[in-house]
Amino acid sequence: MLQLWMQSGMRAGEVSALTRADLDLEQGTVIVQRSWSRQRLGPTKTGRVRRVSFLHPITQDTAEWRPVAREIISAIRRLPVQSPDPTAYLFGRDGSTPLLSQDLHRDWRRVLARARVRYRPPEQLRHTFASTMLSRNAPLLYVQQQGGWRSAAVLLRVYARWIPQDFESVLAQQATATQAQPARRVAELNVDHPETFSSLSGGPELPEGVGRRSTRRIVGLRRCAN
Max CA-CA distance within the chain? Predict the structure, then answer.
């Protein structure tokens, strides 16, 4: 469960509410369409349904960000089947209810104790996903779509310091270009081909409206964070 969480960037409630029907083990993807929060089942935080990959090699010592870590698929196949019903919850106790928050935190504390690591909230797994992906030059819009952040601007406000230094030159090129690149909507991009999230110039694609003034703000965020 923890590896799937880290390699997909989902929120805790989204992981708890996963069902077997949401999984596509052949493609290594999952449909994120609901969340378990405060003992209630509801929509995701943004109200959007998204398809994400859980194959990102976040736990591996590599510079690769693309979803290529298929080892987790075997681990998921070995999970005990709680119920033959495909709508049964993947990590719940008996498949009839989502994974309870207290159970998630209990398992998390056990893992930290075995690893002899000081306590930190399990939500750090989502932060690890974002910071690792961006530090490995994953396209900004791709990371936003996978993690379900409301916008690329929200993602930048928190994680701009993890973007490699040479990204500043990419921002400058985008801002001073004589002809604007045609914008692409996230909905039109294919999670099975992450490279489509890169801009036509070969660098990370910026959200709509990022220009000279927005570039200075992003660079300023990086300097303050360092």
Answer: 59
Q: Output the CA–CA distances (angstroms, integers) from residue 28 to 70, 72, 96, 128, in the order listed.
A: 7, 9, 24, 20
Are 14 and 75 part of one and the same domain?
Answer: yes
Radius of gyration over alpha carbons of the chain, in Å?
19
What are φ and ψ of residue 35, in 5° steps? Answer: -145, 145
Which residues are registered as beta bridge partners of 29?
Answer: 24, 53
Q: Is residue 126 part of a domain?
A: no
Mark residue 213 as left, alpha or beta (left: phi above 0; alpha: psi -120 to 50; beta: remaining).
alpha
Q: Are strands 29-32 and 50-53 parallel, antiparallel or unpaired?
A: antiparallel
Domains held by the chain: number: 2
Residue 122 falls inside a structural domain: no
Q: How far apart (Å, rounded) are the C-alpha atoms in residues 61 and 135?
A: 13
Residue 101: pLDDT band (50, 70, 90) is: confident
Q: Is residue 33 part of a domain?
A: yes
Domain holding 85, by residue range, is 2-115
Question: For 15-61, what is each residue's pLDDT tens digit?
Answer: 999 999 999 999 999 999 999 998 899 999 999 999 999 999 999 99
Residues 9 and 89 grouped into a single domain: yes
Q: How many CA atoms lie within 13 A of 170 on its CB side?
A: 19
Residue 145 lies in a domain: yes
CA distances from 117 to 111, 128, 132, 206 (A): 9, 15, 19, 37
